[in-house]
Amino acid sequence: MAVTDKTILKRLYFVTGFLFLFAGAVLFKLVNIQMVQGEKYRKLAHKRTEKLFTIEPNRGNLYSDDGSLLATSVSKYTIRFDALTVKDADFKENVKPLSDALAQLLGETSSHYQQLLRKAKANKNRYALIARNLDYSEYMAVKDFPLFRKGPYKGGLIIEQKIVREHPLGKIAERSVGYERVDENGYYTRVGLEGAFGQYLRGVEGKRLKQKIAKGQWKPIGFDNIVEPKDGYDVVSTIDINIQDIAHHALLGQLEKYKADHGCVIVMETATGEVKAISNLGRTEAGKYYERLNYAIGESHEPGSTFKLMNLVAGLEDKVIDTSDVYDTERGYWRIYRHRIKDSKRGGYGKISLAKAFEVSSNTAFAKMVHESYKENPEKYVDRLYSMQLNQELGLPIKGEGTPVIRYPDEKGWSGLSLAQMAYGYEVSMTPLQVLSFYNAIANDGEMVKPRLIKEVKEWNTTIQKFDKEVINPAICSRETVEKVQHLLANVVSKKHGTGHKLYSTNFSMAGKTGTAQKNYASKDPDKLRYISSFAGYFPAENPKYSCIVVIHEPDKSVGYYGADVSGPVFKSIAQKVYTSSPLIDEVDMEKVEDQTLEKSYQKYFAEAQKKYNKVPNVKGMCGMDAVSILENLGIEVEVKGNGKVKRQSVSQGTDLNTVDKIVLELS
Amino acid sequence: MLRVFKNIKGDKAIWAVVALLAVFSFLPVYSASSNLVYVVGNGTTTGHLIKHALLLFLGFGIIFGVHRIPSHFFKGLSIIAMPIVLVLLVFTLAQGDTIAGANASRWIRIPFVGITFQTSNLATVVLMIYVARYLTKIKDKTIRFKESILPLWVPVFLVVLLILPANFSTAAILFSMVLLLCFLGGYPLKYIFGIVGTGMVCLTFFILTAKAAPDLFPNRVDTWISRVESFWNPEDTEADYQIEKAKIAIASGGIVGKGAGKSVQKNFLPQSSSDFIYAIIVEEYGLVGGFVLMFFYLFLLFRIVVVANGNGTIFGKLLVLGVGLPIVFQALINMAVAVELFPVTGQTLPLISSGGTSSWMTCLAIGIILSASNKDNDIERKTLDIDDSNPLQVLSGQL
């Protein structure tokens, strides 16, 4: 066949040509993948391997007005145990000491933990729960326990950290402090201050791009976060923890005493509208009370007799009545359109002035007053109420404020009876905070301020935003009217016949109005009749500092239901405690006692001490104390024997100071 | 060191290409080792780097040593090595290692050293030399098919059949390379077609037997079929996973690539440091890197042709082509797999992949090519006259 160089070469060129073609095809395909299919695969690459992770910012703290913590974020740790990763020998050696240590820290018995760990080991449990919600110091302790100190791989320690919101005050004001939760659909549940000021507290989520490097493993791309997380601001609320504490416990005690369904207390600073305390307690099936719903802000109900103040102010402003007008309370009831309006006192009060009718809270007198004054022109009455912002929500940042209801004539539900009913607080509906705002306006000489729960937004020590008092209505009524009703409100407590006289104290003054509203009165069954007892007012009666409302729903009728009995004591104890905890400025004059001999001896010593010495002075006859201080001021060490006056000095008078180190004094 | 450089002989261009590829190989191998370390959980990145360096160092030792051996020695050596290779292949296959139930006994462990060794690589080099030697021997005769059965086709089929159960692609490539060499060496075309036919029949028979009686002997027939099917099947299958990742890698590389070590797909692409390293290279160095690498291999091919051309003997020519073309061919196959021009095979990228000892066999082949390119060896050749038909003369040390 005769193979020659030439034949090989010919065939070789053929083969090489083929290989070059092959290489060309590979390169063509390479370019094709990049250029033609490239977009599709690049998208796939992003989809499969890159993800934007969010970095949760730290939520800001919520403070009370004096800087005490109301809510803060802390880390909590859950400890679990991976029984499989631990070597048998290690486990055997350490299970006892580990259980002992856990028992000591967490309070269960050592055998409990031994059993737990052994069971996990036997079942090859890789995720056995040891303890939940440990705080940081406990977590640090657990990390150093026998076996666990070997770490996650050899020791089987699994740690899960989560951030929880902690309320240092506990259950007190829990509802008002509130919370903010977001569900998986991004829907926020906002409760209380946390919810209201979430925009400040929340901060800004950071964003960081991460790349998948294996199943479940992501590594950050790039040096910086795409969006840096920004921690939330701190919010200083107006809540005063002392007053809050007082209000909470006073309300709780009274609710328990009257087995009431629920109740609330609000304390507000008169001049500024700052809410100092807000407590809402509801009853559980078991008869315990807890911060259940924000009744103070959310629950709009018929206020009852506390609404008489609004009517009185309206009438006085319209100049259709005067406090000295006399009304006949007849025999305790007044029939109007086949409806009987009764007074709480059987047989009525006879003919009384409007002022007294207010103090004794006569329903008949007020019904007659409003009905007779406005029956020709009910619009005038309602317009007057409207002009005092009684039909408007306060516009609080906290979600869920109840809407006040004051019907306009000819609106659905309005009847000929409406004026008489509204006169003593029915057919209208207001929340406790709305009622309080009105009372506060009276206390504040007619200026209606908006109730406020926030004082300041801070970032560390820098103020981001300050919140000042907001005026809803600079004067809801004339100065004259204010003074009249202030006087009457004080009389409710101070006058013997006043419904609030039970609260009267010689030590401090209060002003306010009781209210006892019926609930479920439409029902024919008298057993279903329930009461709402309330007391709204302010203290001190002159120069009011705080206004306060107490509303207690459905007290046990057999124990009592009058506003003065049920709600009044809460008001009083708050007023009393706030008084006693507010320091009084008082001067005590101390009589100056002068002692001639003491004065003389001091003068003598002072004269000696002022002299300049180059030589050792004569201290004989001096008090020991004076002698020591003079000599030591000269830089000499002094040794004292006995007590009394100096009898002898070891270095005699006139010795050069430089040669003396020590001197011994003998006293007698 | 200087002395070593002084003693470097042969085609300087091949030396340069090989050295360049070897130096460059550190980059993708180091980058892709993070996959082994952090995903598979095997060793440390530095460990892989050192291992690669050691393998390459020893590989260059092999090149240096082999290229000093005059090329005609390989005739005799191939005859001696042939039976050893056959024994090793039988031994390898008999181990019966399996990957997920399929036979993957491609490696034997070298005793004491603890390094695994892929026998088929050695067998490829030895068989190619053996065939080259045979073709040289019959260069002036008119050969009949019957005559060539025993000295040529029996060893060829033995080697190929012993590799086949565990490693279809290597067997197939080896077989085609033998045919290619026969074609170059002037073996009659009609016989080659006959052999191709025989090979097809053998393969069909093998597959049918494996299908009919899967437990008769360990094999990977199912893997091959599924791989080939997934290549032709336009629908997404499980086997497309690798190729899709490879294409994602290529597509995200762009013109100039993401930069050294910045590949993302290396973490998801199985065998990213060996079988699919070309995709990773394109991802990190872009089209430019891919083209340059291809250029180096084609340049190597060009130099092999030049060396074959320049060698004065028929054996020299066939030897260079016999061990040189498989390197280039394997490289092209590896790249073709990454760009989905070829079904998935287990071929590494010669001189780049961290393929362990298989790179030593590439080095052995390079060494042989360099030896054939060394003119000094030719001069020596002319002074000696030996009858290379008797292998015992090789042993007697007369050469």
TrEMBL record, chain A:
Chain segments annotated as transmembrane: 12-31
Keywords tagged on the record: Carboxypeptidase, Hydrolase, Membrane, Protease, Transmembrane, Transmembrane helix
SMART domains reported for this sequence: PASTA
Molecular function GO labels: carboxypeptidase activity; penicillin binding
GO CC terms of this entry: plasma membrane
This protein's record includes keyword Transferase: no
Name the UniProt record assigns to this protein: PASTA domain-containing protein
Protein species of origin: Ulvibacterium marinum
From TrEMBL, chain B:
Enzyme class: transferase
GO cellular component: cell division site; plasma membrane
Recorded topology in the membrane: Multi-pass membrane protein
Subcellular localization: Membrane
A single BP term in Gene Ontology: regulation of cell shape
Listed GO MF terms: lipid-linked peptidoglycan transporter activity; peptidoglycan glycosyltransferase activity
Stored InterPro entries: FtsW/RodA (IPR001182)
Transmembrane feature ranges: 12-29, 49-66, 73-95, 115-136, 148-164, 170-187, 192-210, 285-306, 318-339, 351-372
Keyword terms, alphabetized: Cell cycle, Cell division, Cell shape, Glycosyltransferase, Membrane, Peptidoglycan synthesis, Transferase, Transmembrane, Transmembrane helix
Pfam families in alphabetical order: FTSW_RODA_SPOVE
Catalytic activity: [GlcNAc-(1->4)-Mur2Ac(oyl-L-Ala-gamma-D-Glu-L-Lys-D-Ala-D-Ala)](n)-di-trans,octa-cis-undecaprenyl diphosphate + beta-D-GlcNAc-(1->4)-Mur2Ac(oyl-L-Ala-gamma-D-Glu-L-Lys-D-Ala-D-Ala)-di-trans,octa-cis-undecaprenyl diphosphate = [GlcNAc-(1->4)-Mur2Ac(oyl-L-Ala-gamma-D-Glu-L-Lys-D-Ala-D-Ala)](n+1)-di-trans,octa-cis-undecaprenyl diphosphate + di-trans,octa-cis-undecaprenyl diphosphate + H(+)
Family membership: Belongs to the SEDS family. FtsW subfamily.
Entry protein name: Probable peptidoglycan glycosyltransferase FtsW
Lineage of the organism: Bacteria, Pseudomonadati, Bacteroidota, Flavobacteriia, Flavobacteriales
